[in-house]
Every structure is written in structure tokens, then in C-alpha cells.
Amino acid sequence: MERPEPAFRTPEMHSLDLPDDSDRALSHLEMHLIHRPDDLAGQEADPDDVTNKATGLAAQAHQVWLEHSGGQARLHFGEYNDNLRETSPGRLDKFSGVPVLEQTVAGAKQRVEGQLTKEAFTYTTAANAETLFADAAYPLIDRTKANLPPLLWKPTARWVASLAKPVAPTAALDLVPTGKPGQLKVVFNGAPLPKAKVELVSPSGWAREATSGDDGTVTFALPWKGQYVAEVKHSDKTPGEAQGQKYSEVSHLITLSFVQAEGMASPALPAGHAH
Fold first, then answer.
1. Helical H segments across the chain, by residue range
2. Is residue 44 part of a domain?
3. Is the pLDDT confidence value at 53 over 50?
């Protein structure tokens, strides 16, 4: 079921303040990923419910997304619908190095090294690239305050030149065009992922949500021309080890960005801001 959301949300609606005596200043992103134990204090709650509250991702959690134009690509970190883009020095520096970009040109995959700039990770790419993909390594999320092992957050981003051409999935969690008008497919570990909530943000920041069917597909109307960013998340409870530490689950996130060449003129995104 698709639902409209507010076109714009102010930074104040995202803020989560810590008390002055907090022993560790969690980042804006980490506060989305984990609730403090005192948020749950005094509640006679089911343990599973407490765990869900402690580990659940908020609806407006940060994301990474790709933009591409004229042989230049930018990997942003923030919230596209709010035009919030983290910067360096700042939260853009939290990533474990500069992500390597994978571009596909004439069916051949190529690795592209990038650099960290003030507003994004930037890359020089082929102007005729068909798809771009970035896997942005992020440090394990510390959840000791909730008495839980670390969480591995895996933010990834894909850009496609056109929705008219199907793209083969390559990531653990992937969101790719099927080649049919407005249709996207959610894939996890190579298989269609049903009942996944996919949010599509229009060029103005207005968002709609749809749930994938048994075949993993969702279909959206694309009335405006301009850039769209779709997002899907999936939690995998399989424990593992990364960065020399054990984790209890993986929180996957992928965005798919593309530019619609035809349609009605769209209002602009809200004025940009950064934290």
C-alpha cells in the first residue's frame, strides 16, 4: 500500500538530544540505530519487544545515495528527502575509508577509486556508464548500552542510467530495475524478497511507499522529471565477524537513484543543510 508522507521535515524533527551527563555522545545516525537503556527503564516489556526497540531502525535513518552527471559521480551521506547532506569535517568522516565505486560500461565492470571532498565522496566515471554501485564500509555500531553485541550496518547505493534496461543484482540486498515502466525488484542473497517496504522519494522530496510482492517487485508512478531515490532495508539476524569483532546481526540498506527525463516539472528539494 502506498502512502504519502510530508514533503519536507525540518532538522528539529530529526534531533535526538542526549542528557548532559551522558558518558558517550552518540552520533545522529547511531541514535537512530539504538535506543538508550534509560529509554526503556521502568517498563514491564516483553524481552523481544525491548530488543526490537533497542535495535530497530528509525524511519528517517541516514542513507547513502549516488548522483551522476557528465562523467562525475558523487556518493552522499544524509537524507535525500530533506536535502540533508553530511560534510567533512564531520559525519562524512565516520566511514572506514573512501568507498570504491563499481561502474558498468557496455556490460563490463570496472573499479573506480574516489576521493573524500567536503560534501561527498567523488569519482570520475565514464559518461556512458550504465550502472554505478558503491558499498560504504561503516564501523560496527556499539550497542553495549543495550547489553547487545555490535550491529553491522551495511549501507550501499546503486545508480542506473535508465529504468528501461533490466540490471542484474550483485549486492546481498539489491534494488534493481526490471525494464518495465516504474517497476523495481528487491533481491536478497540472489532471491526475490517479498514483503519488503520500498520508499521512493521524488525530485521534490515527497515520498511514497510500496510493499514488494511474492516476486520481489514494486511498481511506482513517476509523474515528474528529475532525480528519484528509492530505498529498501532488511535485517539479517545471522551473526558473524567483521572488522575484528563479532556482531549479532546485519542491517542492510540500499538506495537506487535514477533520473527521469520526461514528465511534469517538479518543485525543488528543500533548501540544503548539513549537520
1. 28-33, 47-55
2. yes
3. no
> Which pLDDT score is estimated for 40?
26
User: What whole-number distance in Å separates Cα of residue 115 and Cα of residue 19?
Assistant: 36
Order of strands across the sheet with 226-236?
A: 108-112, 101-105, 131-135, 151-160, 249-260, 226-236, 197-201, 207-211
Higher pLDDT, 56 or 127: 127
Contact 77, 64 (CB under 8 A): yes
In a domain, 48, yes or no: yes
Helices (H) and strands (E) in the chain, counts: 2, 19
Pair 51, 37: CB distance under 8 Å: no
Domain of residue 154 covers 11-260
In this model, does residue 45 exceed pLDDT 50?
no
Torsion of CA 148, 146, 251, 217, to 10 degrees: 120
Question: Do the Cβ atoms of 248 and 239 come closer than 8 Å?
Answer: yes
For the chain, the domain total comes to 1
21 occurs within a structural domain: yes
Residue 41: what pLDDT? 28
Burial of 219 from C-beta contacts in 10 A (0-12 / 13-18 / 19+):
middle
Q: What is the pLDDT of residue 71?
A: 94
In a domain, 269, yes or no: no
In this prediction, residue 9 has a pLDDT band, given cuts at 50, 70 and 90, of very low
